[in-house]
Design goal:
256 residues; globular; single chain; 11 helices; six-stranded parallel sheet; two-stranded parallel ribbon
Length: 256
């Protein structure tokens, strides 16, 4: 449910920027579509959802065209659309994303420097209700843009919005996210969590939320799909729960 690919000419620079933002060590993945498909196939993954991020409003159209091209060239890819609060007509941008065949929208508040509950996003939330899910990067404690409380406020105002809260709802602040979001309607992806949390905590969050509210993600190229699948399969949960998280939740949300 959660991967990123970049054009080959900028992939190295893009990975370096993301790595520095998160203060991570060097990355073995090159950020290209080819490596994602190779390593994902080795891991047993057959479908990959691309999550683009536009740091500026003027990047939205070109980034979405790139995702559309990748989906056309690689049947294993599913595309989400990028959006930005600074767009002059965010409603038109949503219509363009729908016309391009995208299966959802990605918002990364910390990169994009606007909060989840920015009123400028409200027309987008209104427009996608019943049509597209929105996946949010969640919960970097260095900023307040993606705090779980902000997503809770959005869901209180837009109860029909199908929200996916990445990283168990809060990158490095999963417990806060659990308290604020466990009784909401959102689902959660488990990307960028298994290498940071003790296994027992991952299993505890799965028990709290229920597998039907969880979706597997690798956050490639930050992490190797092969390693992420190994971590996932090592969890002490049932086979039915693993199947639900691995693909069934995503199939339901994406209407596959």
């Amino acid at each position: 449910i959660h991967t990123h690919v970049y054009p080959e000419k900028i992939a190295t620079a893009a990975i370096r920027t993301v790595r520095e933002f998160y203060r991570l060590k060097s990355c073995d993945m090159d950020g290209t579509a080819g490596m994602l498909i190779r390593r994902g196939t080795e891991a047993g993954i057959s479908r990959f959802v691309l999550m683009p991020v536009a740091n500026r409003a003027e990047q939205v159209q070109s980034i979405n065209r790139f995702v559309q091209q990748q989906v056309a060239q690689n049947p294993c890819f599913i595309g989400f659309g990028a959006i930005h609060a600074d767009l002059a007509d965010i409603g038109t941008a949503v219509e363009q994303i729908l016309s391009m065949g995208m299966k959802g929208i990605k918002v990364h508040p910390d990169f994009q420097k606007f909060p989840i509950d920015d009123p400028r996003l409200f027309p987008m939330y209104e427009a996608v209700r019943g049509k597209l899910p929105v996946l949010f990067h969640m919960g970097d404690p260095r900023y307040d843009f993606s705090h779980p409380a902000r997503l809770r406020r959005v869901l209180e105002n837009f109860p029909e919005l199908e929200a996916i809260a990445a990283h168990f709802g809060g990158h490095t602040m999963q417990e806060t996210a659990c308290q604020l979001l466990k009784d909401t309607s959102c689902i959660f992806d488990i990307s960028s969590t298994m290498m940071f949390l003790p296994k027992k905590d991952v299993e505890r969050y799965i028990s709290i939320y229920g597998a039907e509210r969880l979706a597997f993600g690798t956050d490639y190229p930050l992490w190797d799909p092969v390693t992420e699948v190994e971590h996932f399969l090592s969890l002490d949960i049932t086979t039915a729960e693993k199947e639900q998280i691995a693909h069934k939740t995503a199939e339901r949300v994406l209407k596959l």
